[in-house]
User: What shape does this take?
Amino acid sequence: MTDLAWTAAQFAARREGHSLPQGLYLDPRAHDFDLDAIYGNSWLMAGFECELPKPGSYMAMTVGKWPILITRNRDGEIKAFHNTCRHRGSLLCQPGSGSAARLVCPYHRWTYDLNGSLLAAGRMPADFSKADHGLKPLAIQCIAGAMFICLADTPPPIADFAAKFEAYAAPHDFKNAKLAASAVLVEYANWKLVMENARECYHCATGHPELSRTFPVGMSKHFDIGEDSRNAAFAGRMDALGMAHAAVEGHWWQVARFALNEGCVSISPDGSHLSKKLMCDKGDGDLGSMRWAIDPHLFAHATADHAFMFSCMPVGPAETHVFSKWLVHKDAVEGVDYHLDELTDLWTCTNLQDKELAENNHAGIRSPGYTPGPYSEDAEMLVMRFTDWYCDMARAYLADHVD
Ligand code: 3BY
Ligand code: FES
Ligand code: FE
Assistant: This one.
């Protein structure tokens, strides 16, 4: 059986409303398929524009199996490229970030400008065309200070998401923020288990006592707390401040602003702000949390004082890297307005708890006794949405690639 025929059989066996067939979580063929069909065809959030603070700033990262590079050019524009030299393919920049007037390949010194044009290539023949050997560009969209990339030649439509994200995120002023901290967590679990876990809070009350103090862990699909008076008061207050809050969604994204637990103004250990210098000072910094999520890999939260991003990248069938980023206002001073440990403690602790849950889940799915089990419509609606979206994407890819 070809890999695609095997994969198609897995999806044909999938039972709706249930966790996925065992092979889709464990088999290397599913991992390869997921990279091509899912990560290769989706908009993914790479980070924030403020990570590239000045002309010449760049960041390099691995997305799925693909090395990519994002630069800010002399005009301040942000560009994305495949991070592979047009000579013999060396990585141009190591994963991480930096600043350079030009991009010089470490191998034979081919030199590119920040727009990806090849400027210099020594000892090449007189008829060598530099114009034909520029870096290959990637689709990138910067929206409200966040950067979204797509590896597909024809990326999915993004206009609806862009309009909504702009409206909800603009007051948080991500362009005038700074990256205060970042972390990578290695999880020995399939990426879909990491994401399924991230899409529900069925486990939160017992699994995350610290998060549960501020986060409405009994939330519905839209993170609202029901039609009660507190929710109505939150909606009224946000309307008066001109802060968009209604839950909106498309096939691969969700955006909403929701109320935190009573008396809490931030997702933090005790509900108070983690940075005194606010990113958005409307309503005395009591704005609930703006949450956005995109499939396949991300959820993120912006409160008045900080923003947190969680991004999940598959590395192998049983290995996933979770990238976390924390933003604060660019003028917030470390040690004065915020303390790094306090800023990062809650999600670091939550991510470690989730790592254990996802690794346990993966280990249990290895059992010959595993059969796909039913999701709770009440508590796992977003997990169902995620696996349905995953299966839709997979079927569309199979329809295009299998005769
Ligand atoms: O998707 C989210 O926003 C959250 C964060 C904690 C768990 N997960 C449901
Ligand atoms: Fe980059 Fe040779 S591979 S200069
Ligand atoms: Fe969790």
Summary: The chain has a mean pLDDT of 96.
